[in-house]
Amino acid sequence: MKTYPRETIVLEKIVGGGQALGTLADGRKVFVWGGLPGEKVEIQLTKSKSKLAEAIVTEVIEPSPERVEPKDAESYLSTSPWQIMSFDAEIAYKQQLIDEAFALHHVALPGETSMYSDNVQYNYRNKVEFSWYGDLRENATGSVQTLDIAFYRRGTHGKVPVNGTSLAREEINQLARTIRDTLSVKGVEARQLKTLLIRCDRTGNTVWQLYVKDQDFNAIDKTDAAAFPAQGGEVIYSDPKSPASRITKRLASFGNTTLTDVILDVPFRYAAESFFQVNIPVYEKALKDMKCEIERKLQNRHKRVTLGGADPKYESGEHIIDLYSGVGTIGLTVGGDNVTLVEISGDAVREMRMNIAALHKNARAVLAPSEKALDYITSEAVTVVDPPRAGLHADVIARLLEITPPRIIYLSCNPATQAHDVAVLLEKYTIVHHQGYNFFPRTPHIEHLVVLERKH
Hints:
Blueprint: E1 6-10, E2 13-14, E3 20-23, E4 29-33, E5 40-48, E6 52-62, H1 76-79, H2 87-104, E7 115-116, E8 127-133, E9 136-139, E10 142-145, E11 148-152, E12 159-162, H3 170-185, E13 193-200, E14 206-212, H4 222-227, E15 232-237, E16 249-255, E17 258-263, E18 266-271, H5 280-298, E19 320-323, H6 331-334, E20 339-343, H7 346-359, E21 363-367, E22 382-385, H8 394-403, E23 407-412, H9 415-425, E24 429-437, E25 447-454
Parallel strand pairs: 4-6, 7-24, 14-15, 19-20, 19-22, 20-21, 22-23
Antiparallel strand pairs: 1-5, 2-3, 3-4, 5-6, 8-11, 8-13, 9-10, 11-12, 13-14, 15-16, 17-18, 23-25, 24-25
Helix pairs in contact: 2-9
């Protein structure tokens, strides 16, 4: 691996990827992890190209007043690089990054940008994927192969051994350590393992998936699994040729591997590997805001029905289309009694259909890419979109502009691509509401809701 030089610079600003921007002595811009605007720092380059470079901070020479000590001193750069700033600074930078993303596309957001947070900074994640690390250590009897859970070290191919992460619920960290210790006693080495995925529900029930590289792996038996602080788990063979932990073959299953959570009073069943929100309390606030914006549009057009003092419900004829719907947590909570959910993942649609059946919902689950399900977008149906980081497919944008549904509810995990899409949609829409959400505290990740209304 090539070794790059170290250099001392002053950092200038936080940029969209979450790094601090600086300028090298040769005039190139450098994107730096582990530093804050205004700090004088020593940096180690990790990537160097003709016009720009990437680096990590090796020493803070003049710290920013916004700097705080990270909880995970050894591993924070791998999981949550914004542990080094005050929480107030984090909120302010996230608001700033939203504004900059939209200004870049010449989009004026109405009112000041705000960032909702429930002020829970740590122990909020309900899902963590650990890697594995092994090393030879000497003891009284000779060399011993160690086994540790780990995260990848940012900017390198190396790993950082850990005992857990401060972002996760403690039930997850405890289970990870227990599985690590069990495998270590049995002499399992890191080279046999791929990753350990652990997930828990809001009450602390946990499930685990151990991804291994050998189809004959049998180091965990029923007795071991019964002793784990978990309701169930699986051993899964994952093709070693693939860098990702994908399910090639399920080798063993123990206990109950399905979790259940309630979101806005709607129960959902899901598997450990499913796409499911990792910070449900903040997600519920976003859902409430989305529901409010849907109702705000519909209440002026249709008669509402209230039953026995309960929350008002949409009439059965109201139609909501939910694109990029995952397991349906948006459409099945805020979509009323007549919703169409479109999702590309077969596993997600299978779980969505089970949830629809259990809820007795008048909902349709469509297995298709959103850009191949354009006929479901109509001029009367409020359209909800929650695309991946790449944003809306160009065909989806073209269909929205052609059909012009009355209102578009656009939740995004990447304000940069959202701003691009909104700039195009403003040809026939106006922004009537927007709101940021801190789904992932102590990280640079941002969720942002934009509500678009058809121009009259």
